[in-house]
């Protein structure tokens, strides 16, 4: 497979040649590279290494940063204008994130709806501050007009077709694991709007979001989530959990906040044969809830999960 360097980045070919070489690799070659890298460095595997077996699209598109904002004290939100018209994604997928001058490739879930890309050629990402080079670049150097490249991958998504059976969704998020689930939530809202306005398209069931974070300051996209709950009060609901809250909870959030972790009972209360479960968060949380659902006899094909480190 030939990788075409996007036009915006042609002046920075040397800066992304390592990433392009990885993208040309077959899955087996990428696995070998990942294993060799881990053996030599004895470090935790990075995004490309962890996802060496995951299907990716062929399109590597240039993108320009057209919005940067603080979503929380530790999370930056980016809005990217994507250049390639063939670039597309399904709600829940992530991107390989290439930065000129940074040899390490980032892996960040898209938190916007596919509809935003269709209408405005935009995608949104929300990135937590860590010492990982791509995250550091986003927090310390990224600015309006910065040029990057993106490529879609991932097998964690919700992409119903118009003739598919109506499904309910339960979305279980921990920390920045909200990102792909927000994309799915926004996509579900778009499907509700399409059905209501045009009387066609996929018939969406109910959606319940169970979202846990350290405190209300780290509950990302609070306003966006509550706006959707208020827009579709009979279709979308949320339960926001905080585990280490030290300040007073504001009046607008109080009806939706539970102090303490998401419980097994909350999950079991929403089990039905029409319900799909999507889980994204730290590995221990993801493992726990996926096993709880399996023990409650939820079919494995109704349980989708993704772990973020």
UniProtKB/TrEMBL annotation:
The keyword NAD applies. CDD domains: FNR_like (cd00322). One of its GO terms (cellular component) is mitochondrion. Coiled coil: none annotated. The keyword NAD applies. It holds the Pfam family NAD_binding_1. Residues 52-161 form the FAD-binding FR-type domain. InterPro entries: FAD-bd_FR_type (IPR017927), FNR_nucleotide-bd (IPR039261), Oxidoreductase_NAD-binding (IPR052128), OxRdtase_FAD/NAD-bd (IPR001433), Riboflavin_synthase-like_b-brl (IPR017938). Gene3D superfamilies: Nucleotide-binding domain of ferredoxin-NADP reductase (FNR) module, Translation factors. It comes from the Eukaryota. This is Oxidoreductase NAD-binding domain-containing protein 1. It comes from Moschus moschiferus. The gene is OXNAD1.
């Amino acid at each position: 497979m030939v990788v075409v360097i996007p036009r915006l980045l042609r002046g920075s070919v040397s800066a992304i040649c390592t990433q392009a070489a990885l993208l040309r690799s077959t899955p087996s070659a990428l696995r070998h590279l990942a294993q060799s890298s881990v053996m030599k460095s004895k470090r935790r595997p990075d995004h490309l290494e962890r996802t060496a077996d995951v299907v990716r699209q062929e399109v590597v598109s240039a993108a320009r940063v057209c919005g940067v904002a603080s979503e929380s004290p530790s999370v930056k939100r980016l809005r990217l204008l994507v250049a390639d018209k063939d670039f597309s994604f399904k709600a829940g997928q992530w991107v390989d994130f290439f930065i000129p001058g940074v040899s390490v490739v980032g892996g960040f879930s898209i938190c916007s709806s596919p509809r935003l890309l269709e209408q405005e050629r935009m995608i949104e990402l929300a990135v937590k501050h860590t010492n990982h080079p791509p995250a550091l670049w986003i927090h310390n150097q990224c600015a309006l007009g910065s040029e990057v490249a993106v490529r879609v991958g991932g097998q964690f998504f919700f992409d119903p077709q118009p003739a598919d059976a109506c499904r309910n969704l339960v979305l279980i998020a921990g920390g920045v694991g909200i990102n792909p689930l927000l994309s799915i939530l926004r996509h579900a809202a778009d499907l509700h709007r399409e059905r209501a306005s045009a009387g066609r398209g996929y018939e969406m069931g109910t959606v319940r979001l169970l979202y846990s974070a350290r405190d209300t300051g780290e509950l990302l996209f609070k306003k966006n989530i509550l706006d959707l709950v208020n827009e579709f009060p009979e279709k979308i609901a949320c339960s926001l959990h905080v585990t280490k809250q030290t300040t007073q909870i504001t009046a607008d959030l109080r009806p939706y906040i539970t102090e303490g972790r998401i419980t097994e009972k909350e999950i079991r209360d929403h089990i039905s044969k029409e319900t799909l479960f999507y889980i994204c968060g730290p590995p221990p949380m993801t493992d726990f809830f996926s096993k709880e659902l399996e023990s409650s006899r939820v079919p494995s094909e109704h349980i989708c999960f993704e772990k973020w480190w």
